[in-house]
Amino acid sequence: MSGRPPPAPDRLPLQEADDVGDRIHICVGATCNNNCLFCMEEDREDRLGRVGAQTPDDVARMIRDNRGTREILFTSGEPTLNDHLPDYVRQAREAGYPVVGVISNGRRFAYAPYVRSLLDAGMNNVIVSIHGHDARTHDALSRTKGSFDQTLKGLRNLDVMRRAWTFQVATSTVVCRRNLPHLGALCALLAPLAIDRHVFNVMMPDGRGQTHLDALMPRYREVTDAFAALLPTLAPTFARRMALVDIPYCTTEGLPDGVRGYVERYYHFEPDGSFERRAAGLTQSAPPTDDDRLFQAAAMAGDQTGFTRVTRTFQESFVRAKRPECGTCGYDAVCRGVWKPYLARFGWDEMVPVRRAPVTPPR
Asked: Fewer CB near the terminus (10 Å): N or C of the chain?
């Protein structure tokens, strides 16, 4: 989720044409104090090993060697549990990144002095995950009692602090069967707060999302119908801040262009060999590529281990698919395909090529 302002409502919210170079995710959260049912990082021990292998010097090198990237986001697990986070934010600000952000469950933001430490260090973009309109819904999905109250208090602290600091705030909600009927109530809860963007990520059937697909995965058309019914009930200023993402464009016809769309692009670093080991367990390999913008082994030397650069485009090429008919769709050039586990469960019936002028990313 980018720190950019909402797109104009008369165009699709497309990312730039380049797959990488615009946004880097620095994975600094080796652990998480939530345990979300749909988490894509299902293997908590693997994450602990991968992210825990990084030293502060490794992270400092990632920050320093990737200057020129527009946006840096500290993420993975729960980054606020890393005691070095304020220092990493400061290093990124001093390195000249225009946007320095944190993707968080927001629970530690309930402590105002901690929020101030990040803002003083240079954080100017915050993405807070909130998955329900009340404690019963959110805590059941996060599988952590009390998480809703802390997250909401964190958002309210951010609201107050915007009077003294300049920064962007977005919320991120994973849309699943349990919260889909209550999105209007969630919007009502968030409406009084100073939030720039409300991003609704349709659940990705990967990690735990794949494990719980039958119980939690809504059909894409169900999500589109729910949004079509919800948008007219919202104040226009609030509706313009909405974004429905990680859903095929062809299934969102009828929604305003400024609301529907894109899958963000970014790259991140992993210890050499860790991505290859995970990919070896997949049933189908990604298309071969010699484009080192998408995947570059041994991209960075570390003080204890080397690191591979992986883009989201390359990573998801293992688990997304297109069919020949997709080539006739006007969205083909900007569509990344459909999740293979979703197709295995529901098939292709919803994905009907759209006869329209081809849509291409802005350059």
From this structure: C
User: In this structure, are residues 35 and 64 in contact, taking their beta carbons and an 8 Å threshold?
Assistant: no
Distance of CA 41 to the CA centre of its chain: 12
Q: For residue 242, with 0-12 CB atoms within 10 Å meaning exposed, 13-18 middle and 19 or more buried, which class applies?
A: buried
Range of the domain at 101: 23-269+313-346
User: Mean pLDDT per 10-residue run, the chain (363 residues)?
Assistant: 47 52 88 93 76 90 92 94 97 97 98 98 97 98 98 98 96 98 98 95 93 96 97 95 92 89 78 77 56 78 85 84 95 91 97 89 61
Beta strands in 149-272 (DSSP E): 168-175, 197-202, 242-245, 260-261, 267-271
Strands (E), 176-231: 197-202
Kindly state whether residue 362 falls inside one of the protein's structural domains: no
Return all residues near 339 (Cβ < 8 A) that are at least 6 apart: 204, 205, 206, 319, 320
Size (the chain), residues: 363
By the 10 Å C-beta count (0-12 exposed, 13-18 middle, 19+ buried), 284 is classed as exposed
- Look at residue 8 and tell me if it is in a domain: no
Question: Could you tell me the sign of the dihedral formed by the alpha carbons of 149, 154, 155, 156, in that order?
Answer: positive
User: What is the DSSP pairing of strand 260-261 with strand 242-245?
Assistant: parallel
Q: Does residue 175 belong to any structural domain of this protein?
A: yes
Q: What is the CATH number of the domain that holds 128?
A: 3.20.20.70
Give the total number of structural domains in the chain.
1
Cα distance between residue 61 and residue 294, in whole Å: 20
Task: Output b/e per residue, 98-131; b: 16+ Cβ within 10 A.
Answer: ebbbbbbbbbbbbeeebbebbbebbbbbbbbbbb
The pTM assigned to this predicted structure is 0.91
CA distance 79 to 82: 6
Q: Does 250 fall in a domain? A: yes
Asked if residue 213 lies in contact with residue 316, where contact means CB atoms within 8 angstroms, the answer is: no
SS3 state at 116 = helix
